[in-house]
Amino acid sequence: MSHPHSILGALALGYAPMIDRQHLVLATRLTVFPLRPDARLEAAELLAAVAEVWPAGAKPVVLNVLSESLLEGVLAAQPSANITLELPAFMASDAAHAAPIQALKKNGNALILKGRALSAIAPEVLACFKQQVQDLHDEPAPVAGLAQLLSGLRGADEVEAGFRRGAGAVLGWPVAEAYEHPEGAPKAEIQADLQVIMQLMAQVDQGEDVEKMEATLKRDPSLAFKLLRYMNSAAFGLSVEVSSFRHALMLLGYARLKRWLALLLTTASKDHAMRPVMYGALRRGLLMEELAQGMDDREMREEMFICGLFSLLDHMLKQPFAKLLQSIPVPERVRQALVDSTGPYLPYLALVRAIEAESVFDYRQAAEALMLDAGEINHALLRALAKAQQLE
């Protein structure tokens, strides 16, 4: 993101995963809110910013543009074929939009019909749509022949309710509030490979010698492979290839190695239901790190990454943070945010949650609390989303 796009200063951006019945993340939905309803915004500039994260041929992105004039501009601009557009039903039923909609279909863009169709949509226009999205809490009004999506979901219960209602996929998050272990519920068992990572993190924290850590890692060879894959990925920009755990420690030192172990801990679950949670945790960590780029204190930037990354660990490991962080070493300021809901990182976590909730009101409130402008936040978000794609 070397060339800032001025349009990002006039928008609030939110994002959420599109999740199928197997809990695979099919795409990212990017929601675009103009901060001023009367602002004249250039669709080409928005598409250029989006293309830096999702270039032609990359994974699909769903654009949910909450401005009729800006969306009309996007329709006319013919975005790259990997961009899926959500189009409100009232626009689809307007004959003035028939030609650009059909041109998008011809270009290879997928189209999602949004909401209830209150007036007839021409058959040749309706044939351009494959899916219809409605809010979970709205009265169902499906259009025959279109696969059903549901949006506005928060929490695992709502995600499952969406699938029971017949949705082929949902747009939202399977996590809501902090995890609370129900009274009388059996203790959740942490899978063996995650236990190895937790032990390694503790050994790094205690400054154990490399032979002991290598012995721990050998209990699960697949983890060694994953660790080296992360370290050699383009996102981390190392100048030489890392060939072994010992080599990694020599190059990175204990502090940075701890970061990669933390990343591994939050992306190693074999529970398929955790895929969207892992998707969210990685992006939280990268976004909080990007938001901290202006800080002079490198240690705080590293801690912000850990804070965002670990902020969904309670859902992954089915334990409340107060108990979980007794066995996983974290910096005190991270513990304050996750256990006590206090400290300097909490306002950043509130901003990340507002972005995930696609809530322009909460976005404004959190941005003002941190004295950050929309341009800074949105550039940070797009950089984080781009880095996350490189890691996956």
Task: Describe this entry's structure for a reader.
The protein has 392 residues and is an alpha/beta fold. It contains 18 helices and 8 strands. It has 2 domains: 168 residues, TIM Barrel, CATH 3.20.20; 200 residues, Orthogonal Bundle (Hypothetical protein af1432). The protein has an 8-stranded mixed barrel, surrounded by 7 helices. Helix 2 links the parallel strand 3 and strand 4. Helix 7 packs antiparallel against helix 8 and helix 11 crosses helix 18. It is globular and about 70 Å long.
Q: Name the shape in a single word.
A: globular
Main sheet overview:
8 strands, mixed, barrel
By DSSP, the count of extended strands is 8
Number of helices: 18
Our measurement of the CA-to-CA distance between the termini, rounded to an integer number of angstroms, reads 19 Å
CATH architecture of the largest domain: Orthogonal Bundle
Quote the beta fraction. Answer: 5-15%
